[in-house]
Amino acid sequence: MEVVAFLAxxxxxxxxIIFVAFSGGPGQARDAYMTRGGRxxxxxxxxxxxxxxxAVPALVIADMHDPAQGATAATRDQDATPQQERGKELFRQxxxxxxxxxxxxxxxxxxxxxxxxxxxxxxxxxxxxxxxGTGQKRMPAGLLEGEDAEDVAAYVSAVAGx
Length: 162
Prior knowledge:
Layout: H1 2-23, H2 26-34, H3 39-63, H4 73-77, H5 82-94, E1 100-101, E2 106-107, H6 122-131, H7 146-159
Antiparallel strand pairs: 1-2
């Protein structure tokens, strides 16, 4: 969708240049536009209006999804336990700014993508929370504690890499 939004102004500019060129120059293009032009101009404008008025909104609607959860996460959330639901909220509040996790629609920049990590167990996640990741000092140790850490570990181990 971003590609369409980026390219649309250039396509419109190209259509305008083609119109001016086929009209015989800027003066004739202005006259054609002001007097509603000939058959070609009417047809071209109809295409531009239909393209912008129908095609672009249709593309936007087709690309829509719930930003709060990824497409595959919607089915997973139906089976989530209350602990995992709480873990998801805590993950969004505490971890999503650093880690990428599709199920939580998190797109972090500094931490590893949890979708690409292999063996994810609750114990491994709790250990990473307790010691601060893998010991590289990029993640603060003890960011969550007790039940909060357990809930996030249950959630992440249930959805990461799946």
